[in-house]
Fold this protein.
Amino acid sequence: VLLGVVALGLAYLIGSLSGSLLLARAFGRADPRQSGSGNAGATNALRTGGRGYGAAVLVFDLLKGIIAALAVPAICELGFGMALACGAAAVIGHVYPVFFGFRGGKGAATLIGVLVALLPGALLLGLAVWIATLVASGYVGLATLLGMVGVALATLFAPSAGVAAKVFVIAMTVLIFYTHRENIQRLRAGRENRFERVMWRRR
Ligand code: G3P
């Protein structure tokens, strides 16, 4: 039990290492929470700081999801259910980082890292939905929401998925919809940020 608690704590701390905020500090950039959508994540890093910063944040936040869901449970010799719990702890750390006043990102990139490690099949379907939605609508937030629904449905209806995986995807769907509540409001009001071509410009 103690080892499980240590693993969850470690995963939460790894999740709290916000890529956008750490890299902004390291390279003397402005806090991404002050501009664009105000979110401390890869999308807003791209929006406010350009391709290089956005890609670096994406890789960083993906990797921490993978490490929290693979390395931490392996070191602590924990099973698949606890690995999912460690992944969830990392996503929660990303959203509520202890190192950054509990104001972090929306959890998508970190969750993708966890899914790469633990539920790659469901992730493939989610990514297909994500790409299709982004291309069709131009909204990253909407793509993330529908991609999450895709991951959840793929897991809930997969004969091979166990109870732990099903509980995990339901909890993550609730969390992702909660963290995207402002995106949902903006979408309904027709004021959501579009994924502009300008975002790809080098800055
Ligand atoms: O996960 C973040 C993405 O889905 C939306 O980011 O900055 O447009 O709110 P943003």
Notes: DSSP finds ten helices and no strands in the chain. Residues 37, 39, 41, 43-44, 106, 108, 140-141, 144, 183, 193 surround SN-glycerol-3-phosphate (CB under 6 Å). The longest helix spans residues 51-75.
